[in-house]
Amino acid sequence: MPLRLVMMGTGEFALPMFRGLGETEHDVVGLFTQPDRIGRGHHQHVNLMKESALERGIPVFQPERVNKSESLDDLRSLEADLFVVAAYGQILSDELLSIPPHGAINLHASLLPRHRGAAPVHYSILSGDEQTGVTIFQIEPKLDAGPILGVVRTPIGSQETSGELEKRLAELSVPLTTTVIDQLDTGTARRLPQDTSQATLAPRMKKSLGLIDWTKTSAKVDCHVRAMQPWPSPYTFLRISDNRSLRLKVLAVGRYDVSSDADPGTVVVADGARLVAKTGDGAVELIRLQPEGKRIMDAAEFLRGHTVTQGDRFDVV
After folding, report:
1. Domains, the chain, with CATH or none
2. N or C: which end of the chain has fewer CB within 10 A?
């Protein structure tokens, strides 16, 4: 018998799964999503989840606090069998979780119990993980700690950024979610307890975390550059020979073999075509850059417009 579902989500990560639910026999009876926000330039942020729901005639609810009594009353009125949650952005109370007979399930962008928290994709790349995936688990009061209902694994590409990986994981979540919901409907779902001894935390990103630490190894600098895209953006400050400081986004780096005993952050090659910085264990070539207020460019173009010499320095943390 088809289940009545309430979707709870906001971000683009949840969108493919939300659309996928519309292709199943189950009935999506409501969407709970974050209130409309005003972004930079006083433009209203486009909520793609909301747009998708309205196109399909699905009722939309946007409470500031979903655990308030009026929101709980709205949830009860929908008579859902299951709440499906992804990137919602609000903590769900015990009272809320007790409303549907099947409780609530959550889509999480890591291989739980690794990387519990708000930024699992960032930390998967930042940690140098070779693989990641999506996990669906039964929601319990403790953060991302409920029993696992389904998992899909995938390798992380050597040049993949957080933004690229998140989009790929979102698409992988669609068949997994529908399978788990079908299993809950038929009573065949299997619940695997998480091994809490293997849990790691992936707290919310802050803008300051984008600053590159050149004392790290070349591998960790590369992971950092990819993990911080598209936000909070990997950046550094270049102190050039006339003592000016230039803020740069560093959008792609590559390993570079050079023999140097210079301090980390020192420019060891600036030959007109290449810009190479010393790291904690070697060096990396800066392949794609964006000076503050300028467009993205390669190193050769950057060097044509800026005088950089060997011995100039990037700030270290």
Report:
1. 4-198 (3.40.50.170), 207-314 (3.10.25.10)
2. N
The DSSP result for the chain, as a single string, is: -PPEEEEEE-SGGGHHHHHHHTTSSSEEEEEE-PPP-B-GGGPBPP-HHHHHHHHTT--EE--S-TTSHHHHHHHHHTT-SEEEEES--SPPPHHHHTSSTT-EEEEESSSTTTTBSS-HHHHHHHTT-SEEEEEEEE--SSTT-SPEEEEEEEEPPTT--HHHHHHHHHHHHHHHHHHHHHHHHHT----B---GGG--B-PPP-GGGGB--TTS-HHHHHHHHHHTTTTT--EEEEE-TTS-EEEEEEEEEEE------PPTTBEEEESSS-EEEE-SSSEEEEEEEEETTS--EEHHHHHHHS---TT-EE---
Q: What is this structure's pTM?
A: 0.94
